[in-house]
Amino acid sequence: MFTRIDHVMICVPDLQQAIDQYRKLGFNIYPGGVHTGRGTHNAIAFNQDDYIELLAIRDQAGQKAAAGRPGSWGAGLAKFIAAGGGIRYIVLQSDDLVADVSAMRSRGVDVGDAIEGSRLSPAGQELRWKLAVLGPGNPLPIFFIQHLTPMAERREQVPGAGEHPNGVYALERAYMVTEDAEAAAATYAKVLGMPQPPLQRGTVIMSNMAVFQLGPMGLGIVQPYAPGPAADALQRRGPGPFQALYRTTGMGAAARWMQEHGMPPLARGVRNTGEHAMLATPAEACGAYIGFVGPE
Fold first, then answer.
1. Is the pLDDT confidence value at 93 over 80?
2. Does the pLDDT of residue 269 top 90, yes or no?
3. More confident residue, 196 or 122
4. Does 179 lie in the same domain as 142?
5. Domain containing residue 52
6. Same domain, residue pair 130 and 177
7. Domain endpoint, select from 98, 125, 155
8. Are residues 28 and 128 in the same domain?
9. Which of 16, 91, 212, 274 could bridge across to 219 with cysteines, CB 3.0–4.6 Å?
10. 124 in a domain, yes or no?
11. Across-strand partners of 218?
12. What letters, b where the CB count within 10 A reaches 16 and e where it falls short, cover 165-204?
């Protein structure tokens, strides 16, 4: 079954510049290594049980060749980055990917086989997983992962994993924007094998949203009802992932860290839960909206 959101993939033109920017936002993020045979490299910021991935092209020719292979998640990557980058995929974790692929196919979902992949950390550690991507019959910006390397070993690649100056400890929710939340949510319900959630009103992103609960995390399918982050993302980039919302132990401490490192004050809003939230814009977060929620 799908147990949680594993990570968000934020694609950027320059990996080191993106690392520097996310450190200003208060994330403890370090180079993660190279994707063998795919022409890409990444950086990782671990939370308790999920992580942020910054990904960039390291070898243009190698990436182009890899993108041409059937079922590659790298297809269109260079074009996406050239258009401004940001969150390209939301990756869902499975505890048995072969079984989940079989279940999706039984529901009529077009999905590829669970294929093993790996990358080398800067210290030479091989990290292994199984990956499955949706086919052209279901072109959604998600894919599925089952880790073969235990979390404890994966966390060893990043010094001080999960110890962020901004106090972030978990992904709360990730959002997809669409022109029709009801229709899109029906498609996601079929793919995920879950009931379709009712729409609720989001007051920070100014959208009606259907939220699928994946373990402790929510995957929100949203349709703007007024100008705001979702409407901006839809106008700029069209349908797709645009925001990740992270829970922090202290919004005040996060804001002070950012101010001390040259960041302007982030926009503030009030969620439909009554909680206050801060939001970094695409200009401040390498093409993505990155939100923070928690006590002051």
1. yes
2. no
3. 196
4. no
5. 2-155
6. no
7. 155
8. yes
9. 212
10. yes
11. 173, 213
12. bbbbbebbbbbbbbeebeebbeebbebbebebbebeebeb
